Amino acid sequence: MQLGLVGLGKMGGNMAERIRRAGHEVVGYDRHSEKRDVTSLEDLIGALQAPRVVWVMVPSGDATRSTVEKLAGLLEPGDVIVDGGNSKYTDDQIHDVLCREKGIGYVDAGVSGGVWGLENGYALMVGGTKDDVAKVQPIFDALRPPEPEDASGQAMPGAGFVHAGPVGAGHFSKMVHNGIEYALMQAYGEGYELLAAVDLIEDVPGVIRSWTQGTVIRSWLLDLLVRALDEDPALDRIRGYAEDSGEGRWTVEQAIENSVPMPTIAASLFARFSSRQEDSPTMKAVAALRNQFGGHAVQAVRDQEVERPA
C-alpha cells in the first residue's frame, strides 16, 4: 500500500520507517527535514496513486489546520486524510465537514508510543467511518504492536488498536489517555520525592527498580523512571519544570462539561503549572497569612527569617 506522510519529525520519521519495514511504500514530505522524498504537498499528491491516503503528523493547532485545509484543496473524492497528531477532537469535527463537502474521507488517529514506537509499535485510537478506517487499516496494522498473549498463551485481540467511534473519537480517547498519563507521572514523582526525603532509604533508585516486577504499580512509565535514574541517580541535571501539551487541560475541561469528578488528573495538571513558578505567589500569600494570624516566621527575600511581634 502507498501512504503519503506529512511530517517527518521524531514520531513521523520513526513511523515512516516502521511502515516501510512492513512492506508498504511511504512518500514523505516535511518542510524542514532532509529525509523528505518530495519538496511540496503538490508533489506529494502527484506521487501517489488514487485513491490516496495522506497521514498528517505535524504539531496540533494552526500547523495541522492549515495542512488539512491545503490537502483538502488538492485531493480528490475517495481519498482519505488521517490526522495522527494531538489535535483537539473538536478540530476533527470541523475538518470532517470540510473534507466531506469535497468527497474526501477523514480519520483522526490518537497515537501513543513516543520515540520507542519504531521497535515496540504504537497504540492507536482512531475515529471515522468504517469505510474510511478500512482504507487505512493496512497502515494501522503495520504501526500497532503485535498482539500480546495472556498467561495461557492465548492471543489478546484488541490490544494496541481500537476503532473508537466516529470522527473525533480517536483524539478524544487519546486526550483521556494523556490525562491519565499526567496523573500516573505525578504519582510516581511524588513517591520518588518522599523516598529521597528520608535518611532511612539508602538506595532510592533500587527501591523504584524493585517495583518493576511482581507489583501492582509496575508499568512502562515506571521502567522509564528507572532508566532516568540510571542516567542521573539524583536527577541533579534537570530542573523540576514540566510543560503540558494541552491534552491534560482539555481532559479537565471535558470533565467539567460532563460533570465527571476528576480530582487526581486535575491536581496533576495544576502541579505542572506550579513547576513553572520560581516563587509561588499563592504560597507567598499563605506565608503572609500565617505570619499575620499566628506570628509564624516567614522567609524574607534574602533568606532571613522575619518574626511578627507578639
In short:
The protein is α/β, with parallel strands linked by helices and 310 residues long. Helix content is 48%, strand content 13%. Strand 8 (298-299) and strand 9 (305-306) form a beta hairpin.
Tags for this model:
9 strands, 6DGDH_YqeC, single chain, disordered C terminus, alpha/beta, N-(1-d-carboxylethyl)-l-norvaline Dehydrogenase, domain 2, globular, 7-stranded mixed sheet, NADP binding, oxidoreductase, 310 residues, 2 domains, 12 helices, two-stranded antiparallel sheet, 6PGD_dom2, Rossmann fold
Descriptive report:
By secondary structure, the protein is α/β, with parallel strands linked by helices. The chain folds into two domains: 2-165, NAD(P)-binding Rossmann-like Domain (Rossmann fold); 175-275, Orthogonal Bundle (N-(1-d-carboxylethyl)-l-norvaline Dehydrogenase, domain 2). It has helices at residues 10-21, 41-46, 62-74, 89-101, 117-120, 130-143, 169-197, 204-210, 220-231, 247-257, 263-275, 281-294; strands at residues 2-6, 25-29, 53-56, 80-83, 105-112, 123-127, 161-165, 298-299, 305-306. The chain has a seven-stranded mixed beta sheet with strand order 2-1-3-4-5-6-7, sandwiched between helices. α7 (169-197) packs across α11. The N and C termini lie far apart (80 Å). The model is unreliable at 303-310 (pLDDT under 50).
